[in-house]
């Protein structure tokens, strides 16, 4: 499992520390609804997972992810009925890990099984992606937020935050222009494009290949785009 994050605000560092405590595994149960028959006679089932008490998300495997902050805890998983028990949801030390283990095995039709996850929670403080994710985040008042992409992600977010740290170590298309933050630290260490909104301060680094667009007309700008990148600060 991925750890909670350090408190230091620096890019591109999101340090690892071991999680402590027993994990709560939520197995498939009766709280599920079946829909039309789909793939090879299987049904698509939406299941509610009884998890709460988390402020951080850790994603392993491949899935579509929808996150809504400012609501009570609620997690639903929609996938084929024969795949529900392969999508594990565990909570340790305030981190909800969603692990679609079977989608990380590249043989047969296992990579072709659709998984959709919706997460509602009062406050999101961090998101770590170690798989392949298509994510939409609605964050009306995120406070201090960290996003780390180590796999591949197509991510969009809207709302507001005080400070935002983004680290992309894999491949990403990161659209955060509608997430209006005061201060943003962003580093592209892999390959990808990103857009952010910073009203006061931005620190942007490209150590790989990519582009960063900065909106919000921040007063303090610190950029370094390297040899294979470009950073545009828009008026």
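Q: What amino acid sequence fits the structure above?
A:
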């Amino acid at each position: 499992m991925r750890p909670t994050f350090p408190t230091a605000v620096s890019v591109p560092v999101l340090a690892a520390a071991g999680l402590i405590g027993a994990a709560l595994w939520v197995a498939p149960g009766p709280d599920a609804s079946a829909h039309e028959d789909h793939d090879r006679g299987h049904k698509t089932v939406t299941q509610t997972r009884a998890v709460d008490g988390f402020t951080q998300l850790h994603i392993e495997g491949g899935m579509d992810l929808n996150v809504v902050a400012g609501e009570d805890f609620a997690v639903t998983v929609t996938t084929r009925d024969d795949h529900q028990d392969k999508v594990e949801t565990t909570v340790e030390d305030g981190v909800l890990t969603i692990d679609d283990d079977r989608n990380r095995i590249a043989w047969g039709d296992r990579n072709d099984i659709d998984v959709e996850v919706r997460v509602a929670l009062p406050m999101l403080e961090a998101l770590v992606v170690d798989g392949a994710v298509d994510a939409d985040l609605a964050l009306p008042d995120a406070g201090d937020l960290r996003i780390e992409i180590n796999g591949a992600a197509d991510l969009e977010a809207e709302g507001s935050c005080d400070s935002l740290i983004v680290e992309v170590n894999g491949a990403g298309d990161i659209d955060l222009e509608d997430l209006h933050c005061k201060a943003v630290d962003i580093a592209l260490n892999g390959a990808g494009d990103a857009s952010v909104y910073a009203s006061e301060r931005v620190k942007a680094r490209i150590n790989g290949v990519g582009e960063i667009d900065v909106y919000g007309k921040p007063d303090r700008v610190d950029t370094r785009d390297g040899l294979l990148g470009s950073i545009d600060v828009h008026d």
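Q: And what stands out in the fold?
A: The chain has two domains: 44-123, 141-234.
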